[in-house]
Design brief:
Layout lengths: L3 H5 L1 H6 L6 E9 L4 H13 L6 E4 L13 H12 L3 E4 L14 H10 L11 H17 L16 H9 L4 E3 L3 E4 L5 E3 L2 E2 L6 H17 L5 E6 L7 H15 L3 E3 L1 H12 L2
Parallel strand pairs: 1-2, 1-8, 1-9, 2-3, 7-8
Antiparallel strand pairs: 4-5, 5-6
Length: about 270
């Protein structure tokens, strides 16, 4: 095993070696403006048996300002990483300007589905590489050690995927898969995620995720993806906590970087 991630996390994944199934709970859109609610969510997850999450941090969320300029936020992230949580690069601005002459498919994915947040949906290789490398270096300069890159809404162009690999990111994820960028292995693993903008989206999300949770019970990796806004809707949050509690009793809670390292161990990479 030659990669940094595969060796650095060896002791952590070895402790869970006897477990067959895993759950990764990821918290998206972590930024100074969402720190307070994110901290509450992390605390509530810990009380329900999930003591390690993958925290998807946006460097300059909606152009509100670089997270590196907020010393309290950076210190908070360092403490979380030291406690076993994973810090993940999550886009750069988490915004995508609308383009002229977009196809209906482009409009659906970038406006209706992602509400103009699919930043890496159609970025060129060069621009994607520039943003990912800039983010990576800013994280490292702040004393953080990101191994993964996850595009906002899991939408990334082929060029952006190559850019993440060339920026020395260890893995990326899409809605249905987790991809080891070093080996090229792609693992099927559907994420549970909520849309809470209005009543019909919330109702549909609850029904769909309840069904999906039952269908995914036999999978080796379950992914539960949380956004800060989910916590503001009690009916959504209650379902999330039920799913988390139901998973934590039968699965080992882990992070993406640890899970990737486990797969490399099993595959002899």
């Amino acid at each position: 095993m030659s990669t940094i991630a595969a060796t650095e996390f060896l002791p952590l994944v070895a402790a869970a070696d006897a477990a067959k199934d895993f759950v990764v709970v990821s918290l998206h859109d972590v930024a100074p403006s969402t720190q307070q609610i994110a901290n509450t969510i992390i605390s509530e997850l810990a009380r329900r048996g999930v003591r390690a999450c993958s925290l998807l941090v946006v460097p300059d969320y909606h152009h509100q300002g670089l997270f590196t300029q907020d010393r309290h936020f950076v210190s908070w992230l360092r403490d979380l990483e030291a406690d076993g949580h994973e810090i993940v690069v999550h886009g750069y601005f988490h915004e995508r300007p609308r383009r002229a002459k977009e196809t209906l498919r482009d409009q659906f994915l970038t406006r209706l589905y992602t509400q103009d947040e699919g930043e890496f949906y159609d970025l060129t290789y060069d621009e994607a590489l520039r943003r990912i490398v800039t983010a990576r270096d800013e994280f490292r300069a702040s004393g953080l050690r990101p191994r993964g890159f996850v595009a906002p809404a899991w939408l990334l162009s082929d060029g952006a995927k190559r850019a993440a690999r060339d920026a020395q990111m260890e893995y990326t994820t899409r809605l249905h898969t987790v991809c080891d960028l070093r080996s090229g292995n792609v693992f099927r693993a559907r994420a549970l995620v909520y849309s809470v903008k209005n009543n019909w989206r919330r109702d549909l999300s609850r029904a769909w995720n309840a069904t999906l949770f039952r269908l995914l019970k036999g999978t080796s990796l379950l992914r539960i993806s949380i956004h800060p806004g989910d916590y503001s809707h009690p009916v959504i949050w209650r379902q999330i906590t039920r799913l988390v509690e139901g998973s934590a009793t039968s699965r080992t809670a882990t992070t993406y970087q640890e899970w990737i390292a486990e797969q490399r161990l099993r595959g002899g990479i």
